[in-house]
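Entry 14. Ran structure prediction on the chain below.
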Amino acid sequence: MNKDSESGRNVAFIGMGVMGYPMAGHLAKAGHNIAIFNRTGARAEAWAGEYSGRVTESPADAARGAEIVFACVGADDDLREIVYGDNGALAGMSEGAIFIDHTTDSADVAREVNAAAQEKGLGFLDAPVSGGQAGAENGALTVMVGGTAASFQTAQPVMQCYSRNITHMGEAGNGQLTKMVNQLCIAGVVQGLAEGINFAQRAGLDGERVLDVISKGAAQSWQMENRGSTMLQGEFEFGFAADWMRKDLGLCFEEAKKNGALLPMAMLVDQFYAHVQQRGGGRWDTSSLIQLLQKT
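Output, structure tokens:
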């Protein structure tokens, strides 16, 4: 699909973090009329200096007149803060508009906000993303979406501005549940990659050559392709932070208590990330797990 299709819509974006900033930028570049809000005003002004858009004083102000309101904030309570109340996005939205939450948060809060939106005659999609900051900047995110088929069909062409794959996963909350599966799989893959690279180094092998050959076979993964070399170099000052991964894994553990899923590997890796945090690496990339194997 042409990323410039469906241009000229009135949209809003709330949350100019490392993901929201470039995502909103893609919407502006595609020709949409965009209003933005960010709690830190300087960040919003910086965005407006780089792209074409209107900075507003509250989520409600941003949402007024918008056909679609996007949000990408931190966690459940951050979402509630920008959604509810007189200054919240729902208060500013017109009947028939759609609220899209790109935050990685709980399935419970997705269902909660969906119910609140429905009461006001609004659409809602929980649409967490995967691909990291680089994916957001390059317009190559994967989006997993929960909500009604009608809202999905309306919003999909607009989300295409910053995505390479968008999949409807069913009812509200299912997008967040799918993102939990994504994070559980990543946790195990990163730990396995860390152990393999550390083993190769201790065996005296050429790490880059090892990665080159095994990436051509069954061991290949996104983590290997995008983090293998930096793990060899001991570089972690970028990417998806250990703090964020622990937040996401916490969501997985809470959901597992409800559905009975066993997560022994994820729980172990979560404790490894706790050790990374104790070393002052909370903002290090998730690939910093290898440091625990190299520096005891």
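The chain has two domains: 10-170, 177-294. Will compare against last week's run tomorrow.
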